[in-house]
Design a protein that fits this description.
Elements (H helix, E strand, L loop, with lengths): L1 H16 L48 H4 L9 E3 L12 H13 L5 E6 L6 H21 L7 E7 L10 H7 L1 E6 L3
Parallel strand pairs: 2-3
Antiparallel strand pairs: 1-4, 2-4
Helix pairs in contact: 1-4, 3-4
Length: 185
Amino acid sequence: MRQWLLISFLLALLVGCASTQPQTGAPVEDRAPGAGTPGGPGASTSGATPPGVTGTPTPSRAGDTSVLRDPRNILSRRTILFDYDSSVVREEYRELVNAHAKYLQANRTARITLQGHTDERGSREYNIALGQRRSDAVKNLMQLLGGGEAQVETVSFGKEKPKVEGHDEPTWAQNRRVEIIYAGE
């Protein structure tokens, strides 16, 4: 009980401390009303669990990586999308992060890299920092949920490696992400 209370407190602290204010003087992503918000223009549903994909990881033996590639298992999902100019892990991705944290906890030799990305808007420096905040937010949440600190590395690519090329909100929404990359895959 105390552990869950501590986890809840730390999650609330993490969410409460997340800054959504842009740095003054730094160009940032478009703040058009509804842009990047659920139900707004360009809203993405790619975070929803596809039909037939289980919400919890399939139990595996230590070192068994087959569950990571099983499209019916939540562990095959490796992308966490973010709202515009935000590094707060959206509620719809908490189950995904939890599943990967539990996998890391059960497989202490597993290693991952969390790659933070942004869309093309904003300065290079601002986007590198935002991508790092995003990957750090996922790492912190994974650690709170059981993943080991030494198992998780973070890196930011900013706007340098877009997932999709384009100059509109649906494209930008797909590029605001953290990718989970397992070592050896």
